[in-house]
Amino acid sequence: MNPRERQHWLSVQHAVRAALVELLTDSAETPTEAVEQVRPSLGPGKRADAAMVVEAAADRVDEADLAEIEAADTEETA
After folding, report:
1. Using CA atoms, how far apart are residues 47 and 59, in angstroms rounded to an integer?
2. Alpha carbon of 29 to those of 25, 33, 71, 72: distances in Å?
3. Which pTM was predicted?
4. Which of 12, 15, 25 is nearest to 65 (CA)?
């Protein structure tokens, strides 16, 4: 992986981490909306890659994972 690709995927990874929480806590309705909420300055390529990864990751989250995410989100807002 060249340095440019590495930077691209690091940026996408940061967006995915934040956007996944937004999507799973129902702060956003779609993966694309979640990515736009947390990283509005992303270009179209990074936004599309991040939304694709968020969608795939959200499909793999089970109820126990979701409860843990919601508890952590509640602690952050308290």
Report:
1. 18
2. 10, 7, 20, 20
3. 0.80
4. 25
